[in-house]
Design goal:
By secondary structure, the chain is mostly beta strands. It has two domains: 31-165, Dex49a from penicillium minioluteum complex, domain 1 (Sandwich), CATH 2.60.350.10; 180-492, Single-stranded right-handed beta-helix, Pectin lyase-like (Pectate Lyase C-like). It is built from one helix and 44 strands. The strands form five sheets. The chain has a 19-stranded mixed beta sheet that branches. A hairpin with a 2-residue loop joins strand 12 (133-135) and strand 13.
Length: 493
């Protein structure tokens, strides 16, 4: 399929108002919007499809030709999508593909495999129940709600296609509003040596569809900042650096291959992250790492990272304090190395220690966990060091689809001498409920539950409805769960 040549967009900055429309260009010059004026009788709402423009500067350099992806409203004309190249898996970096768009109602998707013969396709998470139709080298399927998917042909999970079907935007701020920092379609680079966009308090930062930013966002000692839109951060040093701040929201943004964390939160309260997508493939390129942060909501995210996807700590570097009140739900996590979820490694041994408490993880699909170092294994991991006490944690409705190498559960109080200065204090009152795992081939390494000594124990851990390969386990042996020393009141219901 021949792709249209990009059309040039203008660039301007209005005096006194934060407006960035870019020096860039777009494949279409504007968003493509298709509306079916006939109300969908099944969905009881209009079918609307919005495609995003692509800046000319990256039109060829960022394209992956492994797949040709098209969309249409039912009975309409097929519209070609731009297939972004994203690099995944630090152990063996490879180019995968990503497409994104906005829609409501119903949309049909067609994916053509351009290299080789298509024998098999799997669309994950499997919990979404997407049933494709295969005809030759084409895969077609229908979407009726916003969703984040991995389309994998012939079992290839490295050169796969990531599909981010966003809901329609409900908020497009006025670029002339002095409370708005507006990034329009095009390429945007910070005008400083450190490649940082410094954001003050009280701003709504809007990344329009087609906006591509080459720099990180910094919020330092600010409050009431919102990052919204459908734009992309492209290979920044970090995605978001949020420190000593309050009431920060990130909604709708995609971060591609940062050199370091996608989101670093330090001593920040009132953090909300929604409809967020991330890829990383370098050392220390964790997804969302939060140090001494509290009152956190994370939902509707897709994280594919070459280090921990989500990590919750207390003290590290210049950040101090407890970590409390987390709600993580409706997440898709893919750890090419390290943990999908890791809790408790870093803390403060300068006094009795910090507390990590009141964490709730629900409705999460873990697509991959691959880590050869036993110290860093565990889909749901408690690596409690540095005098931290972790308590009151719930994991429920967690679906693990694949563990190449690793463990399902890892609850340990330990002293990691590489990163820490002392052992943790304890793990208390943790519930695992409605957890499922179906392994392919060899089973995962044994899960570990183990304290440090008689005064640093793992206590009051409840497992309920744990299903392995379709069978509800009735013993820890059936679940490949090893209970070690200094672990008390470990219960399987």
């Amino acid at each position: 399929m021949k792709r249209p040549m990009p059309a040039i967009l203008g660039a301007f900055i209005l005096t006194g108002v934060f407006v960035y429309t870019g020096c860039g260009n777009s494949s279409s010059g504007k968003e493509f919007i298709q509306i079916d004026k006939t109300e969908n009788p099944i969905m009881a709402k209009k079918n609307i499809l919005t495609l995003h423009p692509v800046p000319r500067e990256i039109f060829y350099t960022h394209h992956n030709s492994d797949f040709t992806v098209s969309l249409r409203l039912p009975g309409g004309e097929w519209q070609d999508l731009y297939e972004y190249k994203v690099i995944v898996d630090m152990n063996n970096p490879q180019p995968a593909s990503m497409v994104q768009f906005d829609f409501s109602g119903m949309v049909e998707m067609r994916v053509k495999m351009n290299n080789g013969i298509l024998d098999d396709v799997k669309i994950r998470p499997l919990s979404k129940g997407i049933q494709p139709t295969i005809q030759g080298n084409y895969v077609t399927f229908t979407l009726t709600e916003p969703v984040k998917l991995s389309v994998e042909v012939n079992g290839d999970r490295v050169h796969n296609l990531h599909v981010f079907a966003n809901p329609l935007e409900t908020e497009k701020p006025d670029p002339h509003d002095p409370a708005v920092i507006y990034f329009g379609p095009g390429i945007h680079v910070p005008e400083n040596e450190k490649k940082v966009f410094v954001i003050p308090s009280g701003k709504t930062v809007y990344l329009a569809p087609g906006a591509v930013l080459r720099g990180k966002f910094l919020c330092d000692t600010v409050e009431d900042v919102r990052f919204i839109g459908r734009g992309i951060l492209d290979a920044p040093e970090q995605g978001f650096d949020l420190r000593f701040s309050q009431n920060i929201e990130i909604n709708g943004i995609t971060v591609i291959n940062p050199n370091h964390y996608t989101v670093l939160g330090g001593q920040t309260t009132g953090l909300t992250i929604r409809n967020f997508k991330s890829f990383s493939s370098k050392g220390w390129s964790d997804g969302i790492d939060l140090m001494s942060c509290s009152d956190v909501v994370i939902e509707d995210i897709f994280m594919r990272n070459s280090d921990d996807c989500i990590a919750v700590y207390t003290h590290r570097w210049e950040f101090y304090g407890d970590a409390k009140n987390y709600r993580v739900k409706n997440a898709i996590l893919w750890a090419d190395i390290a943990h999908p979820i890791n809790i408790g490694l870093h803390g403060d041994t300068g006094f009795d220690g910090n507390v990590i408490e009141n964490l709730h993880f629900s409705n999460i699909d873990i697509l991959e966990h691959d880590e050869d170092d036993r110290d860093y294994q565990g889909c749901m991991a408690f690596s409690v060091s540095d005098h931290n006490l972790v308590r009151n944690v719930v994991f429920e409705k967690i679906r693990v689809e694949n563990i190449t190498e690793g463990q399902l559960f890892n609850l340990r109080i330990l002293f990691n001498e590489k990163y820490c200065t002392g052992p943790g204090r304890g793990i208390e009152n943790v519930t695992f409920r409605d957890i499922s795992y179906n392994y392919e081939g060899w089973p995962e390494n044994p899960s570990v539950i183990e304290g440090y000594d008689k005064s640093r124990v793992v206590n009051d851990i409840t497992f309920k409805n744990i299903v392995i390969n379709g069978n509800r386990i009735t013993s820890f042996e059936e679940g490949n769960i090893h209970i070690g020393q200094f672990a008390e009141h470990i219960v399987l219901k």
